[in-house]
Design goal:
single chain, alpha/beta, TIM Barrel, eight-stranded parallel beta barrel, 8 strands, about 15% strand, globular, binds pyridoxine-5'-phosphate
Length: about 240
């Protein structure tokens, strides 16, 4: 069975919407592990729009499965990763103005810089995953620069507007997973996967782990709503 790494960024997004100290992403990480998550993912962005350094350090301390730190290959982030020592770093591209990560890292363009980052992280005992589009040349380059794993960007598939586009994008993911597996890279997948799109991956056994955040946090908000309202009603009834 494939593993599930749960991204808790958007618990921090809710917190930051109010600029207060809840909801607590650390508590979400503990709850996710209690429910069977095989890993906890946080993306420390340059602008700290959701997860901050304090969250990463606390989650590092409490996580019992593994901590996967998503980050851009900048010197600031590299310094933090070497200090915090997550189990895995996933290298992602990052644009300040984007709503979420918009595409895979372009390894053809940034090969030399990323190779250096991969080597530094691996020498520190941190496994390195690279978030890339399902593209043959990108995958071959990930292998060439000695990454341990790739995470295939599933966003174009999950967000496809038509059935044909969805089919075409899924075929790219299947090819990418098979090529990555053949090259002995661990193959993961993530971005935009929800309770519907996950079903398409049945039988694609080359995928070791799914990295999922937004759909899980979104469902948690709704499945927890009735209890949350009951709890407040009870408090009000005791006034
Ligand atoms: N993988 C990577 C590399 C990401 O950047 C993200 C989004 O932070 C995810 C997976 C999770 O995507 P989603 O929140 O859409 O499940």
């Amino acid at each position: 069975m494939a593993q599930l790494a749960v991204n808790v960024d958007h618990v921090a997004t809710l917190r930051e919407a109010r600029g207060i100290n809840y909801p607590e992403p650390v508590a979400a990480a503990i709850a996710a592990e209690t429910a069977g998550a095989d890993g906890i993912v946080v993306h420390l962005r340059e602008d700290r729009r959701h997860i901050n350094e304090r969250d990463v350090r606390l989650i590092r301390q409490i996580v019992q499965s593994k901590l996967i730190l998503e980050m851009a290959a900048t010197s600031e982030m590299l310094g933090i990763a070497l200090d915090v020592k997550p189990d895995t770093v996933t290298l992602v591209p990052e644009k300040r103005e984007e709503l979420t990560t918009e595409g895979g890292l372009d390894l053809i363009t940034h090969q030399n810089h990323v190779r250096e980052t991969v080597s530094t992280l691996k020498n520190a005992g941190i496994a390195v995953c690279i978030f890339i589009d399902p593209d043959l040349d990108q995958i071959k380059t990930a292998h060439k620069i000695d990454a341990d794993m790739i995470e295939i960007h599933t966003g174009a598939f999950c967000d496809a507007a038509t059935g044909n586009q969805r089919k075409r994008e899924f075929a790219r993911i299947v090819d990418a997973a098979k090529i990555g597996h053949k090259l002995k890279l661990e193959v993961n997948a993530g971005h935009g996967i929800c309770y519907n799109t996950i079903k398409s991956f049945k039988g694609l056994n080359e995928i070791t782990e799914f990295s999922i955040g937004h759909s899980i946090v979104s469902r948690a908000v709704l499945t927890g709503m009735e209890q949350a309202v009951r709890d407040m009603k009870e408090l009000i009834s005791g006034l």
